Amino acid sequence: MPSGLAWRRPSADTWNNYADPVKLFCHTLGSGPPLVILHGLFGISDNWMTIGKALSQHYRVIIPDLRNHGRSPHAEAFGFFPMMEDLLELVEEHDLTSVVLLGHSLGGKLAMHFAVQYPEMVQKLIVVDISPRQTRVRQTHLRMLQAMNAIDFDQITSRQEVETLLKNHMDSKAHRLFVMKNLVRIDRQRFAWRINLGAIERNIDEIMEGIPAGSGFDQPTLFIRGGDSDYITGEDLPVIRMMFPHHQMMTIPDAGHWVHADQPEKFMQRLLEFLG
């Protein structure tokens, strides 16, 4: 039993699936104190390799693909309880006793959940552009799911055809390129999505849950938000102060939700200032 607060029991129809963690694929870079980076929804570990390589000059950087993403296994259960169990197994597999934990968006919410549940395992916490409160499913998420589900791979022969079809649902080229990171060639003529769209779609409300009321994390915490993003608002600040009493809030101008991609140099500067 974890040393943090008792976890809310999942719904009966998915409880059996929550028992078994999956072995996460991960990149490992550098040497030194361990730092784990968790990507966001629809993301993959490769999205963080540039930041990871920079940090690997000072840290042993571990970047996993979350379950149902990238090269990690698929599973029907998809929520914070099973993802925390996956992360716990990863930490134990690498024989880590205390880590710096960095997470963006979904990964940031997972990092917060893990830190309040297993505080003795987290030395410092870095949360990138996500609030601890329960959030709503955004239209961006729904459009991405709709766009990816609409691709009939029996009719596809090239990556360009996939991107052209994605335009029917997604105006943003940046979002299309982000989604295309999930495209994989399974043989010389066939493509597929690596991501487990079905499990994500069925459980998307689960991953919008907030950090349990009354919980908190008493170690140094950094929140980084994009100046053009609304994922952390003024309404969130009292909750953040209560749950994370030793936090800093840094806003990076001219950056949206993908802060690390929009302003990588400023993002790295803020990270290194916090990490010392």
Brief characterization of the structure:
The chain is an alpha/beta fold. The protein has eleven helices and nine strands.
Quickly count the domains.
2
Strand content: 15-25%
Order of helices and strands: HEEHEHEHEHHHEEHEHEHH
Sheet having the most strands: 7 strands, mixed
Radius of gyration: 18 Å
The third-level CATH topology of the largest domain is Rossmann fold
Instruction: Count up the helices.
Output: 11
End-to-end separation: 33 Å
Q: Which structural class best describes the helix and strand composition? A: alpha/beta
Q: Per CATH, which architecture of the largest domain?
A: 3-Layer(aba) Sandwich
Shape: globular
Number of strands: 9
The mean pLDDT is 91
Written account of the structure:
The protein is α/β, with parallel strands linked by helices and 276 residues long. The protein folds into 2 domains: 12-18 and 26-136 and 207-275, Rossmann fold, CATH 3.40.50; 139-202. It contains 11 helices and 9 strands. The strands form 2 sheets. A 7-stranded mixed sheet has the order 1-3-2-4-5-8-9, sandwiched between helices. It has a two-stranded antiparallel sheet with strand order 6-7. Helix 9 (237-243) links the parallel strand 8 (221-226) and strand 9. The longest helix has 14 residues, at 80-93. The radius of gyration is 18 Å and the shape is globular.
